[in-house]
Amino acid sequence: MHLTNQLQHNQLQQVPGAMPKITYISNAGEEHTIDVSVGMTVMRAAIANNIPGIDADCGGSCACATCHVYVDPAWVERVKPADPTEADMLDFVLDRQPNSRLSCQLEVTAALDGFVVRTPASQH
Ligand code: FES
Questions:
Q1: What parts of the chain have a pLDDT lower than 50?
Q2: pLDDT tens digit string along 4-18?
Q3: Which of 41, 69, 102 to mutate to test the pocket of ligand 1 (most atoms within 8 A of CB)?
Q4: Which atom of ligand 1 is the closest one to the Cα of 63?
Q5: Which atom of ligand 1 lies closest to the CA of 89?
């Protein structure tokens, strides 16, 4: 990590109420970067900010697989692995890839400042 980024990262870790930046990139390449409260999920933040490409039909219960995202390769190892329920639900997404995740299961932490996900061409 670049020194400046490391410093910003460390400062963010220490600030209560910090708002990590999360970037969503659509299948067409459109980017949205938003500030997200720690503890919110990547899915809820997208819905609350009208980010296109995430349907979340079940509202975050890990029961619909319509909140599918591709985690940027640089971040794959830095998020908690999918639990068995999420791993099972990922069988239902279109075009599953090794970096596929359900965004309702990705909780935002201060360490995720700069996190990037790509949304698929379709959730259905
Ligand atoms: S919102 Fe339904 S599985 Fe994530």
A1: 1, 3-4, 7, 10-14
A2: 455 455 444 445 677
A3: 102
A4: 3
A5: 3
84 DSSP assignment: H
Using alpha carbons only, give the angle 85, 102, 53 rounded to the nearest 5 degrees. Answer: 150
Stated pTM of the model: 0.87
Task: Answer whether 54 contacts ligand 1 (Cβ < 6 A).
Answer: no
Which residue in the block uniquely carries the two structure tokens 């794959």? 76
CATH, domain 3-118, list 3.40.190.10, 3.10.20.30, 1.10.10.10, 3.50.50.60: 3.10.20.30
**Rg of the Cα atoms in the chain:** 14
CA of 55 relative to ligand 1 center, distance in Å:
8
Domain boundaries, the chain: 3-118
Task: Identify the CA nearest to 18 among candidates 114, 118, 121, 124.
Answer: 114
Which of 40, 58, 92 should be mutated for ligand 1, with most atoms under 8 A from CB? 58
